[in-house]
Design goal:
By secondary structure, the chain is α/β, with parallel strands linked by helices. The chain has two domains: 28-256, Alpha/Beta hydrolase fold, catalytic domain (Rossmann fold, 3-Layer(aba) Sandwich); 271-510, no CATH class. It contains 16 helices and eight strands. It starts with a helix and ends in a 5-residue tail after the last helix.
């Protein structure tokens, strides 16, 4: 009876969260567009909503900011800043670079596609300046990480830009014009090389050897203003959702583009409270769903682990061995062993996990601990139901932070990472789930530690280091569901399929599609 009350309350809270999230999302007027060249974007406007397509804005023209996301980023990651700008009276055009989000064009395989992303940014700037109701004489470009480098470089080639904002990235540009009125802002938790690079860029633009943080150099009227600023308590990704960072950007726009139009005076992003409530409710319902599926899940008991430390040592040994085997190998390059997967970062990461998974399965087979279970259709059906429920519920409440809905093209790209990662997650469950409850948690920590070290040693892409926070969130979900399943529906293959499936969906939605 108690369980029914808990799950009923969770379902009610989930419904309330959906209604609240919908209302908070509609509170800022925004709409999707496709710009010339097929570049998709989301436009955010201050003031009341209006029909789109329909009559253009009337009244005083609105200053506009073109927002560019980072590598492995998307329009959802920039949405919190765009919404805060709209509340302050500034319109935003948030573009999706090629290879990212809903942009159908692939990213170049030969390193960063600077020419391609400059073309995409140029399309967004032209679009922003051509829209009725937007002020073409008051235009800024802003970007995060890769978008920050791109915005600075673009502004050094476009003399009509009025201001530049580089968030968590930046280097001295190489164009013929000095970028006008530049704000470089980064997170205290950014990697040191990014912080140092942005500070050196600020000094170079100001014509100095070194700059003092939060001091403005140059003159706004001449377009020579430069300011460097650090936001405390955030990292490379969470800076995008920081009210402190957004306020610094708004203040800079006020000094460069002038005051906003139709400012609401409201602050913050009203979606975040609803997403938190929704994610907790979804987790409770997923916990209950595992119980509902339990009678249909074929039982495959985990091997009894006699030595918890031995199991953790085996995991660490396999991951270390996999890293050593890939040392000096560009696994994700077109000629590399996993270059057939057209997803940047995913190829070396899922390939590395595949190699580690095979090593672990060989150890388990040698010790007689490998259990059959892949051929049972009931296991696949239950794993599919659990994965679909997670995708719909968690995906809905994660959307304000990171775009999660797959296009048909991207959905097809999920199958290969799934197949590559399945041995690893299934072996993890077989090896560690039969031990004490704390052992799988320690195993996740081992995985994160070895992967972080592998990025530092350049065995895995550096971008993965910046995304380790996302792995922590995923692993917390996996542990909650895995613990529940081990008690009511023990089947390591079920959890292996579930974890590999969710990871593959994340890879396919976030990682750039390559040519």
């Amino acid at each position: 009876m108690t369980g029914r009350l808990v799950y009923g309350a969770a379902a009610l809270l989930l419904a309330v969260s959906l209604l609240g999230l919908g209302s908070a999302t509609r509170a800022v007027h925004h709409y999707a567009v496709e710009m010339p060249g097929g570049v998709p974007a989301i436009v955010y406007e201050p003031g009341p909503a209006r029909p789109v397509p329909g009559p253009p804005r009337t009244g005083e023209p609105v200053p506009v900011v073109v927002l560019a996301h980072g590598y492995m980023g998307n329009t959802s990651m920039m949405s919190s800043l765009a919404r805060r700008l709209a509340r302050a009276g500034y319109a935003s055009v948030v573009l999706a670079f090629r290879g990212h989000d809903r942009n159908p064009r692939p990213f170049s395989t030969g390193g960063f596609d600077f020419e391609g992303i400059h073309q995409d940014l140029a399309a967004a700037v032209r679009f922003a300046r051509s829209q009725p109701g937007f002020d073409p004489e008051r235009t800024a470009v802003a970007g995060h990480s890769m978008g920050a480098f791109t915005a600075l470089e673009w502004a050094s080639r476009d003399p009509a830009v009025d201001a530049v904002i580089a968030i968590a990235g930046g280097a001295p540009p190489g164009g013929p014009y000095p970028p006008p009125n530049v704000l470089l802002v980064w997170a205290s938790g950014d990697p040191k090389m990014l912080r140092d690079g942005a500070r050196e860029a600020a000094a170079s633009l100001a014509g100095l050897q070194r700059v003092v943080l939060d001091r403005t150099y140059g003159e706004f009227a001449r377009g020579s203003a430069v300011r460097a600023s650090e936001v405390d308590g955030v990292d490379h990704l969470t800076i995008l959702y920081s009210a402190d960072m957004a306020q610094r950007v708004v203040d800079w726009l006020g000094q460069t583009l002038g005051p906003g139009v139709d400012a609401s005076g409201a602050t913050g992003d009203g979606r975040f409270g609803w997403t938190g409530l929704g994610l907790v409710s979804a987790l409770v319902l997923l916990w209950g769903l595992v119980g509902l599926l339990a009678p249909f899940v074929p039982r495959v008991e985990n091997p009894v682990t006699t030595s918890s430390l031995g199991a953790l040592g085996t995991l660490a040994g396999a991951m270390t061995a996999g890293a050593v085997l890939l040392a000096g190998v560009d696994a994700g390059s077109p000629g590399g062993p996993f270059g057939f997967l057209p997803l940047a970062v995913s190829a070396p990461v899922s390939g590395y996990q595949a190699l580690c998974g095979v090593l672990l399965l060989l150890v388990l087979a040698h010790g007689g601990a490998l259990r059959p279970g892949l051929r049972d259709s009931r296991m696949w059906t239950c794993a599919g139901v659990l994965l679909l429920a997670t995708y719909l519920m968690m995906g809905t409440f994660l959307e304000p932070y990171a775009w999660r809905w797959l296009t048909p093209q991207r959905a097809l790209h999920a199958f290969v990472p799934f197949a590559l990662m399945l041995p690893f997650f299934a072996a993890f469950e077989l090896l560690l789930r039969g031990a004490r409850p704390w052992v799988p948690i320690a195993g996740r920590i081992v995985i994160l530690g070895v992967m972080a070290l592998a990025t530092i040693l350049q065995l895995l892409p550096f971008e993965l280091f910046l995304a380790l926070g996302g792995f922590v969130v995923f692993f917390a979900l996996f542990e909650a569901i895995g613990y529940r399943a081990s008690r009511v529906a023990p089947n390591p293959w079920l959890m292996g399929v579930y974890q590999a499936g969710w990871s593959a969906l994340a890879h396919a939605s976030l990682f750039p599609v390559l040519a």
